[in-house]
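Exercise (ungraded).
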Amino acid sequence: MSRDPRTPKTDPASDATRDTGHNYDGIREYDNPLPGWWVWSFWITIIWGFIYIFFAFLPPKMFSGETSLETEKAEMTARVFGALPDLQLDDATILQYSQKPEWTAIGRSMFQANCVSCHASDGQGSVGPNLTDNAYINVKTPADIADVIANGRKNGAMPAWGKFFEKKEQVMLAAYVASLRGESRPGKAAEGEVPAMPWGKAAEK
Amino acid sequence: MIPIQPQLSSGRLERFSYDDAIVRKFTLAMGIWGLVAFAVGLLAAVELLLPPLRDRMGEGTVGYGVVDTLLSIPYLQFGRLRPLHTNAAIFAFAGNAVFAAVYYSTQRLCKARMWSDKLSALHFWGWQLIIVLAALTLPLGITQGKEYAELEWPIDLLIAVVWLFFFGTNFFMTLAKRRERHMYVALWFYIATIVAVTVLHVFNNLVVPVFGATLVKSYPIYAGVQDAFMQWWYGHNAVAFFLTTPFLGLMYYFLPKAAERPVFSYRLSIIHFWSIVFIYIWAGPHHLHYTAIPEWCQALGMAFSVMLWMPSWGGMLNGLLTLRGAWHKVASEPVLKFFVVGITFYGMATFEGPMMSIKSVNAMTHYTDYTIAHVHGGALGWNGMMAFGMMYWLLPRLFQTGRLYSKKLAATHFWLATAGILLYILPIYVAGLMQGSMWRQLDAGGQIVHPFMKVMTAMQPMYALRAVGGTVFILGALVGAWNFFKTWQMRPAAYEVPVYEAPALTKEYDGDDAAPEANHLGPVIDAAKDISIFSTMWWHRRWERFPVMFTWLVLAGVLIATAFELVPMFLIRSNVPTIASVKPYTPLELYGRDLYISEGCYNCHSQMIRPMLAEVKRYGEYSKPGEFVYDHPFQWGSRRIGPDLAREGGRQSNAWHLIHLRNPTQLSTGSIMPPYRHLLEGKIDYDSIPLRVKAMQHLGVPYTDADYAKAKESAKAQAAQMLKNFMDSNGNKPLDMLSHDGASVIGTYDLTDTQSLALVAYLQRMGTDLSKTAPAASATPAASAATPPAQGSH
């Protein structure tokens, strides 16, 4: 009970009435009241917690990621592609968009995120063929590019990407790839045949 | 003979001495394993820097060859090393620190020697054996594939025996034989530790072993969503009851001792102890926000995590406020320096934890390095600093030297450790925030802005700083080891064993506290007074005489909370809506999956796409609970050092995967994945495949007896098909084998029956079932399961 002489006099905790008198192997215990902010914060988190649980358990699933994903997805599609009509994965559409840099930019982003590990950073090819030369393995017209992307080729040697992209995105990716033809970036040697139909740089010659 | 203050009880006087030899052993083990854990951590950190460094040196250089050789040693690869690091840090370093604290303080708080010196020794040597077994099996790839529960079933059994029967029995019997009437708060925390860890360990490690001649392998009885729930119920509460409660016990004993000050508030001890015990267990699902775990479960995890904030801070307050009137000592006493910083880190980590449990924050920080910074603040800052503080307080007492070899060196250790921790965590926090924001960024066209490898490349400077921070921390630990050694050298020729004297406890006791007085004024005020009297916690004093009741209450707290989450998780079918097109893996894929687990792929790759726009854009359709019903164990992961693989199936060709395993950076510029060439050479153990199918059958995976009978042939056929597919797309040429310096072709791989084919078969299956159309009702599910797909890849 006696006050520790080394304790400064101003120490409120040294108040002898707050000493429990417990002594364990020389360890004593004060019985200071709990700090008010601690008690109140504890109560607030408990009350908040149960309110949150109550709302989370209600049927609308208001904190669910799935609910907000659907909305975000729809908003994004509307914002990016809302102005466009229904697009077909045909030669005319793909060629038309391959000449519009604002749309091939979308294709380019998609290419950078998904295609570079086989076709290399600028489409010059590594495991997959060079897409910047004039020759193609499985492509005769621009629509074939879209088909190869969507369905893949050679038992998965070229994977099928159809399920990963929306239709309009597939148009933009095909348009970007089509626009690479004839860029002739140094990379993998040309494979396949030169399609009879000209497009890209090949068309300008 | 040193008489101890007599008690109210009047039992006969007994003489006893304390067993400090066992404390010396545990303290030494803590120091040695600590150095090992830190060193392995540093090696793992450096490994994340090596692939880009190697590539910068350029193919054909000696440096390239040296680094490449190091990177391709399977036993040292990140996926196997990281579990070794975490297990060593938690169970070897922190574990031995806890045991040293418990054995030293319990004897003194009970005024009794440990009940059995034999059990103490069995505990010590048993635990060290477990650590050695872990250090041998984890680099060999023998693992259960669940974080912090990697050790395989024979070691798990050993842990259960050592923990409960050696440690637990010894501890509780010492309590039973104690000569101190009331249990001090440190003992409450030790009780909670022993009880809760037993429950956690047992329930998360219920497995079906695969018995093979050379196979140490098991599958957990839970699958997918349920396994994920059990794992993070365990993972989170291992942090609670292995790294928090015992260290709070340590703090409550060694801090007032070192500061020579009374504990700030007895009633705060009571309240924060019980609230920690009752709230912590609920919070596990916050590790699974936005995953396929049910929404209600995430909500409970988040709400209880936030409620946990103040109970955790109760410990910090009681620690820091105990130093009131002793702050001047902190300047001169290294032990207190370590404790002050340790407790501050505890406060920081336990604020950060609830914050990261808030779903919108978690959406940003989860799977990133932010978590890594958070846990190192906890592990190095809280557990490390408390352990070292205790060590410096104990050394002069254990070795009876009267003083530490050098206080100055202890202070040097302190500053190096503090600087090391900050140098480690600050860049890694930044790395985490960068990852979180770069991963989610979409451009105007709705496409992801930063491909995964670009993000990884941006991490390199931060990873380098982390390695520097780790090195500084280790330098501090080495200074500590030197101080330890020099203090030990100063020990006397023979240790004194003081004999103490205290009366035994009697059965009868009438010394219980009475309720505080209150003058009653009126009915309303009376009620308020009653609450006020109740909240002084005076009634708790009686409880402190009953260790058995304490044990039951802790057990009840743990079990009730668990039951509230666990029972609905396992019983309500709608938690995991089944998907008709999801089928069991083919035998070869199952084997490939076991390789994935064995290599520790989950340490870098998650398999869980969260329902967020950027994530769906990057990885594909978000993961559904029904996709994981055959996943024993689940492999959702907790960190993306590499990209998510939940929808990896069909994204790359077989050829790409095989070339990628040979050297990932050849195809993914900026990748920090090591080469997995041993899989291109190691052969499939076909004989073990039926055993694996059989074990899965026991677990309820719908393989038919015919599947089991044909498992071997089926696996061989699929492997052959995979190889044919590769040869077709590689122009019928085998895969070139490159020299370590990458410059020359030194041969070709014979990929026939190699493990790489099984692993790639599994990778090609991942996430593909969801988009398949369900088979006609007449087809038995398992018939299609064991039949390899018609094509080499999906």
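Further reading is listed at the end of the chapter. For now, observe: Chain A is about 45% helix and 5% strand. The CA atoms of residues 179 and 200 of chain A lie 5 Å apart.
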